[in-house]
């Protein structure tokens, strides 16, 4: 029997990378490469002008987390600054959701 946690799920194209430390998932046509500590399936939450958000569950803490992939974060200076600004703001937030 194949280990679903290490190999990802077949329905969303999961597969191990970097010796099994990371797993790739295809979510709404976007490839997410996340730590293998997140349980499949990786579910889409939404998409916006800058990227797509999915949720996953941490296998160590059982905590549900949101993962955002920004497609063109470093294509130009303005997008890079927006991305950095969002990361800095998120580091200061602590919310139960």
TrEMBL record:
UniProt catalytic activity: L-threonyl-[protein] + ATP = O-phospho-L-threonyl-[protein] + ADP + H(+); L-seryl-[protein] + ATP = O-phospho-L-seryl-[protein] + ADP + H(+)
Molecular function terms from GO: ATP binding; MAP kinase activity
Pfam families linked to this entry: Pkinase
E.C. numbers: 2.7.11.24
Keywords, in A-Z order: ATP-binding, Kinase, Nucleotide-binding, Phosphoprotein, Serine/threonine-protein kinase, Transferase
Family: Belongs to the protein kinase superfamily. CMGC Ser/Thr protein kinase family. MAP kinase subfamily.
Protein name per UniProt: mitogen-activated protein kinase
